[in-house]
Amino acid sequence: MYRLLRKGMRKGYAHLQNEDGVALLITLLVVTLLVVMVLEFNYQARVETEITANFRDGTKAYYLARSGVHFAAALLKEDTENTYDALTEDWAQEIPPLPLGDGTITLRIIDEERKFDLNRLVQPNGITIDRDRVTILENLFDILDLDPRLVDPILDWITPAGDQRPSDIPTFDYGDRGYESKHAPLDLVSELQLIQGFSKEVLLRLGGKPLGEGVDFTLSDYLTTFSKEGKINVNTASKEVLQSLSADITEGMAEEILLTREETPFERIEALQSLLPGIYESIKPFITVSSHYYTVVATGTVGEISKEIIAVLKKGDQQIEFVSWQVR
To answer: CA–CA separation, 197 vs 195, rounded Å?
Structure first.
């Protein structure tokens, strides 16, 4: 009888121990779940706070960049009365970062008519090839240690198809790339990435800068798709572009032009006659001392967030026209 009683008590005690263990496990599980929920809520709260802050700073940064573009437009508008445009003017100077509110603005203005306009390889009728400008671009490619024959796929890309197509323009096949030749003017220099023969190495040599998997030509010194008449501003053009105007222009002649304009910008193209005797008349139709198209690169930064606006502006008589606007 005593043994049975002791055995029953042990079973009851073990049963109570089991119940206590289960209760402890349940308590631990509940506490663990609460901790996880609190941590998850805290994480989500921090993420949402960061997203909100980034959105706020991104919006501020965008409007700072936008202000930078309009500041550049104001600088260019002040210059509309000048008969020439040069690197000695206010718009061409390096502008230090501008603090504004809790952010900063960085700004750069680039003259597009210091470059060769690729679309001017074809005359304004859209059909006839401008052979003189073809030669200038071939010269530029040669100066940059590139194959002058790279001009051919550009001509194929920008000239019309069908009966209007010039008979002496080679045809290039893009079937393996899944698209056809555009047969229309280039919108941007970066379209060269689509044209046969223009590898990344070639594009970088042409002044492009790596951007993701592609190449960006915003700051290129050599090529553009924006100009009033396709003429090159000798007050702002690079040494290579100046040399490309004629095979007879030596590196020394181009450097002399750079030194002269640094002291005294050319107010008239005739000022080059003394620097390029025997050459001036042949390049006269392709040069100017004024510019009308400018690229503005404005970056607004707030905290760790930056927004960049790339805008092309056209300078007219007492007014500035916005031609293109890209945010990145």
So the answer is: 6
Is residue 125's pLDDT more than 90?
no
Question: What's the burial of 256, exposed, middle or buried (CB within 10 Å: 0-12/13-18/19+)?
Answer: middle
Q: What is the dihedral sign for C-alpha 218, 223, 229, 231?
A: positive
Specify the CATH architecture of the domain 1-115+221-228+292-328: 2-Layer Sandwich (3.30)
**For residue 212, what are its two tokens?**
């993701």
Each domain of the chain, given as residue ranges in start order, spans 1-115+221-228+292-328
Residue 38: which pLDDT band, with cuts at 50, 70 and 90?
Answer: low
Residue by residue, DSSP assigns 103-119 as EEEEEEEEEGGGSEEGG
pLDDT for 213: 84
Return all residues near 238 (Cβ < 8 A) that are at least 6 apart: 114, 221, 222
How far from 9 is each of 1, 2, 34, 111, CA to CA, in Å?
A: 12, 11, 37, 99
